[in-house]
Amino acid sequence: MTEAKYYKVADHLFGVEAHNSILAQMSNYEPFTTNPADTTDTLFFLSVDQEGPVSYKEEWRQDEEGQDTICGHTEQGESVFEFRWGGRVAGWLVCSPGYRKGALHICGFQAKAALDNALMIMFAMASACMGTVLFHAAAVSLEGHGYMFLGKSGTGKSTHARLWLNNIPGTELMNDDNPAVRVKPDGTAVVYGTPWSGKTPCYRNVSAPVAGIVLLSQAPYNRIVRLKGIGAYAAVVPSISGKRWDSVIADGLHDTENYLATNIPVWHLDCLPDSNAAHLCKDTIAL
Amino acid sequence: MKIKKGFVLRQVCGENVIVGEGLDAINFGRMLCLNETAAWLWQKAQESGDFTVESLSDALCDEYEVDKAQALADVKETIDNWISQGVVE
To answer: If exposure means fewest CB atoms within 10 Å of the residue's CB, which of A256, A277, B14, B59 is most exposed?
Structure first.
């Protein structure tokens, strides 16, 4: 039996329709569950079924630790994302223009992971022109403010976040891998927890105004410098997911990235994985 | 000559920057800062599709009070930089 459920992430409402056995695996979405009286302002709606395969023309592929995502489009112009683990197909996401409607055709293998990927893609694309970006980062809160740690995979984002948790009283982990940031109409940039958090089960429906963004690099010492202008923009852009060869999406992401680089303090922290790094960072950036 | 597909002129924190966003440019991995004149030339080059040092110099002379020799030298320097950065072909 299929059922529809609604969730709210970063104040964006979205719906998922899937077989009960799939919905039962979505415990990471539970904190974001909502029962909307009105679904007219739904950001997107995703339906999950087992129809497939999908024929499409490949445009681009990304390989990340044995996980492939292949992007392309159908003859009708719908965007397609094929998900593979270890070379084996888990499913195809087919999106309507504008990413308001999606269909995920699962194969039965890695179904939950394919669903998570599909929802992250739909969320990032559909909200790109609404001042929202999905980061690859760790986010913590302290005294009501949000701080984000960016860096390439393996740089130690999670490690640095954990150093704050262990050494700076009052720090809480908001999300360990994929927080969302939304620029509100009044200009406030707010960081939100999401149902996606990498290997760390941290699915918190929390938010805080962003007070600092820190790009991390490993170094044999601790040092922090403020980045401004293009330097700040260049630090932020690689940490934001999106399909930049779609010019509408690229324009939306750019507007938000430029706003963040201009209005939020951005820093570069060269660091060791030690408590001094957390203290130096906090003493420099915390409001 | 023409601008390679996928390169876009963006306003970043008040400055003019060339970034690679298209499928053919997504691995560019850096940004190119342009001064006001270079950004103006980029827009002209983008509009005209196919361009030469000569055609952009003429456009520059039409728009600004600059003598032809100076325009040619400035445009050549700008375009040489774009060629060495791999954003035109």
So the answer is: B14
